From TrEMBL:
This is Trehalose-6-phosphate synthase. Residues 471-491 are annotated as: Disordered. GO terms for biological process: trehalose biosynthetic process. InterPro entries: Glyco_trans_20 (IPR001830). It comes from Cellulosimicrobium arenosum. GO terms for molecular function: alpha,alpha-trehalose-phosphate synthase (UDP-forming) activity. It comes from the Bacteria. The lineage of its organism: Bacteria, Bacillati, Actinomycetota, Actinomycetes, Micrococcales.
Length: 491
């Protein structure tokens, strides 16, 4: 652990990698929540002297920094109003839909922006407090786009990286945002801005050119510094992955294989088990998938005695209206299709509004003949990679939307679909259901080579490698913190 001078690596993300529970008598306890990001960063956090700044997930929870698994965890407190405005509002009802091709209409509220700005400043201040001189700070995702600039203003000695886990939209959509230049300036506070796909980096660079008129050359952007000097910001793609070996190993365990057989038998041993696994989010194309599936039953190209669809839809952002609407739509559609086509002992769709531990997920992946990933827009989609990592038997077919980051890497082995083209998607689902085992093996091997080689440890090493190889900053005396006021116009 670090001494008084602070940490050499500070990760800043909206959520901490632990879940807090507050008992009735007010005692706070926590459990690790092993999300993708923490798995990715654990080795580098342990090797470096690492601190993680993030929100506990609960309102008004004031918790002192704590040490867990060789990391210092630094909780940032959010009030109930900030959760409403910064998290549910600006992050998930403004930026999320805007950055996902406006599948749902983004809402623009000035009070939400003010809260986003204030909370970003709080994350930046907490990170600054933890960082040793010359440390590396790595900021994650759309909730914290103003943090890079806010940190740089206080600590020009730090190396600052930012990674956007979701898509970066084309300028024609991004420019709807009333605070678009403030967001660009916020991100340009970083030395390295990482994206999932080359297309996202290109969208960002184009937005910088058009909204700020800075010079760009390939991935390099020249930004004038406050003191009249120039500095360079690199914007490039670093497609994220999963801990592939962990899923591979999980799925090789006899208990998990036993559980996979049990799942199939509980489903009535269908010939074809199809699987969808998503957060219940309108970007995931769950409605399109269910519509296609229902039509296949109607057309008689699939029938409930031989095929079934298991749809895991984990609860997400339940206070946001668009998510409530989606849940109603999905549950209505599932109810209608089951009402119409199910028979005793043969549901058409098994709809599970829960989340499950990785062991159960690995068993479901092993049990599923066809994995359906039909997002309308998705930064990467890690479920597609988890499915592949779990299939050491070289069986199973991945049906994958063209609109996922994963499609850039997995086109060679997956069956690509456009989820808006319901007829095209129906044909692909049928092709997947009937694919012979030789073809399955050929495709799955290709996919596995890719997913097992490019795992998440490689991702974080490659991002941090590029960041730390960038020319180091000249240390200057740190003046008083200066940040743009929330009244400042978007000029
Ligand atoms: C996406 C985002 C993450 C976010 C996750 C879960 O993957 O990129 O930043 O943490 O969804 O959403 P939530 O709002 O529950 O954190």
């Amino acid at each position: 652990m670090a001494g008084k001078e602070g940490f050499d690596l500070v990760v800043v993300a909206n959520r901490l990698p632990v879940d807090f529970t507050v008992s009735d008598d007010g005692d706070v306890s926590w459990n690790r929540s092993p999300g993708g990001l923490v798995t990715a960063l654990e080795p580098v956090m342990q090797a470096a002297d690492g601190a993680w700044v993030g929100w506990s997930g609960a309102p008004d929870l004031e918790v002192e920094p704590l040490d867990a698994d060789d990391m210092r965890l630094v909780p940032v407190t959010l009030s109930a109003e900030e959760i409403e405005r910064y998290y549910e509002g600006f992050s998930n009802d403004t930026l999320w839909p805007l950055y996902h091709d406006v599948i749902a209409p983004p809402t623009y509220h000035r009070t939400w922006w003010d809260s986003y700005h204030r909370v970003n400043q709080r994350f930046a201040d907490a990170a600054v407090e933890q960082a040793a001189h010359g440390a590396t700070v790595w900021i994650h995702d759309y909730q914290l786009q103003l943090v890079p600039k806010m940190i740089r203003e206080q600590r020009p000695d730090l190396r600052i990286g930012f990674f956007n886990h979701i898509p970066f939209p084309p300028l024609e959509l991004f420019q709807q945002l009333p605070w678009r230049r403030r967001v660009i300036d916020g991100l340009l506070g970083a030395d390295l801005v990482g994206f999932q796909r080359a297309g996202d980096a290109a969208n960002f660079i184009r937005a910088v050119r058009r909204l700020r008129a800075y010079t760009t050359r390939g991935p390099m952007i020249t930004v004038p510094d406050e003191d009249g000097r120039e500095r360079h910001v690199r914007a490039a793609a670093f497609p994220i992955s999963i801990d592939s070996r962990r899923f591979d190993e999980l799925a090789r365990q006899p208990e998990i294989q036993h559980r996979a057989r049990e799942i199939r038998s509980d489903l009535g041993d269908p010939e074809i088990m199809m699987l969808g696994v998503d957060r219940l989010d309108y970007t995931k194309g769950i409605r399109h998938r269910i519509k296609a599936y229902g039509e296949l039953l109607q057309d008689g190209r699939l029938d409930v005695e031989h095929a079934t669809l298991v749809q895991v839809a984990s609860p997400s952002r339940e206070n946001v209206g668009a998510y409530q609407d989606l849940r109603e739509h999905v549950e209505g559609a599932v109810g209608r299709i089951n009402g119409e086509y199910a028979e005793i002992g043969h549901a058409a769709i098994h709809y599970l509004h829960h989340s499950y531990p990785p062991e159960e997920m690995a068993a479901m992946y092993l049990a599923a003949d066809v994995m359906l990933v039909t997002s309308l827009r998705d930064g990467m989609n890690l479920v597609a990679k988890e499915y592949v990592a779990a299939r050491s038997d070289d069986r199973g077919v991945l049906v994958l939307s063209e609109f996922t980051g994963a499609a850039d890497e997995m086109a060679a082995g997956a069956l690509l679909v456009n989820p808006h083209d319901i007829d095209g998607m129906k044909d692909m689902i049928v092709a997947a259901a009937h694919m012979d085992t030789r073809e399955q093996r050929k495709r799955m091997r290709r996919l596995r080579r890719r997913v097992l080689a490019d795992d998440v440890a490689r991702w974080s090493e490659s991002f941090l490698g590029v960041l730390t190889a960038m020319p180091s900053r000249v240390p200057r005396s740190t003046g008083p913190a200066r940040s743009a006021s929330s009244e400042e116009r978007d000029t």
